[in-house]
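queue> pop job 88
queue> type: inverse folding (structure -> sequence)
queue> payload:
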């Protein structure tokens, strides 16, 4: 990766960490299109590695608002979906993977935007986990299904619950990818170099997150998903 390319990714990581720390999602939706354009081979490992500490921080920061029932059933589905996502990652080439990233993000975000207000039951939560397991393991993006499930929840509940679900799922995906030989040294080194920018963005979000709630938070989250999905489709 050239100095210019690294600088672009580093700035993107800083801004994306700030967005995710403030809204509860958006990191992978913003970073994935940029990294896919610069070096698709870093997807999804770089995203998973960077999002583990980011989501741990967000979950701890608002731990009293975690929706534990949702975390349990999403994690059940998430585990099952991980293996299907691994299969997709193995059989598709980088061009197909980029298209998959774009279309999965765009379609899920539009569905979330148009869906009527509802409270998901355990079957719906498990389905969200299953879909996320597929998309996050294969593309690094798992936010849109979570947005669909928790888009009408209070801001603190959305941020903390989604952070825990992300954290659990990312650990599972990374372990499965490592066992299957999909984790490369270059992806780990690139991720390590970007950690300082992740920390800065996460820290800055603490001054904003409490101001974002309700419809404003929902439209920001889904808007990021739609725009990032459309951009990566055009690039691919």
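queue> result:
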């Amino acid at each position: 990766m050239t100095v210019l390319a690294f600088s672009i990714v580093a700035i993107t990581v800083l801004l994306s960490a700030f967005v995710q720390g403030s809204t509860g999602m958006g990191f992978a939706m913003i970073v994935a299109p940029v990294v896919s354009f610069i070096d698709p081979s870093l997807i999804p490992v770089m995203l998973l590695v960077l999002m583990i500490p980011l989501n741990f921080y967000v979950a701890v920061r608002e731990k009293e608002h975690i929706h534990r029932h949702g975390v349990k059933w999403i994690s059940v589905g998430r585990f099952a979906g991980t293996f299907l996502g691994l299969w997709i990652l193995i059989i598709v080439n980088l061009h197909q993977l980029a298209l998959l990233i774009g279309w999965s993000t765009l379609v899920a975000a539009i569905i979330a935007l148009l869906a009527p207000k509802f409270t998901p039951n355990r079957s719906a939560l498990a389905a969200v986990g299953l879909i996320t397991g597929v998309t996050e393991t294969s593309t690094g993006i798992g936010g849109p299904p979570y947005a669909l499930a928790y888009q009408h929840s209070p801001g603190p509940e959305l941020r903390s619950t989604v952070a825990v679900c992300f954290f659990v799922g990312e650990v599972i995906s990374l372990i499965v990818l490592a066992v299957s030989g999909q984790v490369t040294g270059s992806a780990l080194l690139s991720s390590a170099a970007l950690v300082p920018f992740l920390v800065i963005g996460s820290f800055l979000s603490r001054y904003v997150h409490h101001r974002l709630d309700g419809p404003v938070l929902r439209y920001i989250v889904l808007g990021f998903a739609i725009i990032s999905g459309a951009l990566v489709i055009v690039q691919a």
